[in-house]
Amino acid sequence: MDNQDSFSRFVPMIEQALRDALRTPNAALDNFYGMMRYHLGWADETLKENSSSGGKRIRPILTLLACEAAGGEPTLALPAAVAVELVHNFSLVHDDIEDRSDFRRHRRTVWRIWGDAHAINLGDGLFALARLQLSRLLDRGAGPRATLEATQILDGACLALTEGQFLDMRFESMEQVSLDDYLWMIRGKTAALLACACQLGAIVGTEDTQIIRALHDFGYNLGMAFQIEDDILGIWGDPQVTGKPAGDDVLNRKKTLPVVYAWDRGFMPKAPDAHRKAACVLREVYSQRTVSEADLLRAEEALEAVQAREYCAEVSGEYTSLALSAASHPKLSRAAGQLKDVARSLLGRSR
Question: Which domains are seen in the chain, by residue range?
């Protein structure tokens, strides 16, 4: 069964469960839940409903596949899958406010249409609904211990998300970011929730701690590899593929792994002159209010001088190997092959 089969099997039930979770409980709250449905892609700016799907739903699909790979019935993990997707969207709503992002998925962001106050409240509502979903695991046959553990795992991932966002915002005002700090940041912003998605499915499917650990490790390493590939695409990606201008991350002065690595190499003791010069060029470019096309070319040449792209591809490959190795644990069922299919569909975009 290939990756597309996983999507065709699981996306309809995930979409229906999400719609059920966001059903308006009272007519006075039509707009509140309508704004949630807008953010998930099911309504337009007038809050008129449509029948479209809101996205690929990668995280909840991983939850259901992890449950199956652990030997469980995937539908039993549906409340956990919905909880993960709601948390993901809560974080997006708040990130858009903090980053002052005008668009997401080619549509105006919630704060841009309805203002900061409504957007903050909307995000809080999504977070609360996510936690309430986990209590429905009891209705599906999960024991109290597994349900409590699931709640603790989700709360831990939410804390990691906020830690990662804090570091990401803090980096904006820092002249230089260390390699260790950057990797810690993406652990929180990206890897933690993918690890959570897989771990939640695992604890619904089994009590075997080795299986649960393997599936957590799969999600974590997949998340790290995915974010690093995103960093590569943010500078060297094809605009026809990414939908963003070439060098977009440099133009926006984002301190992603290629730049952080170049600084780390250039300012280390006894760094070669070429590496030191490259780091100085990047520092100069990033110190400006705006980055011109000429500055972008200089920055790309500096990154090439320290082989930043090759380094990032190597690190992403290492995390990818760790993810695939975790999904090859001998105790996992044949469904683990579908986890590998999803991983391969998400990775390799920068190659």
Answer: 3-346 (1.10.600.10)
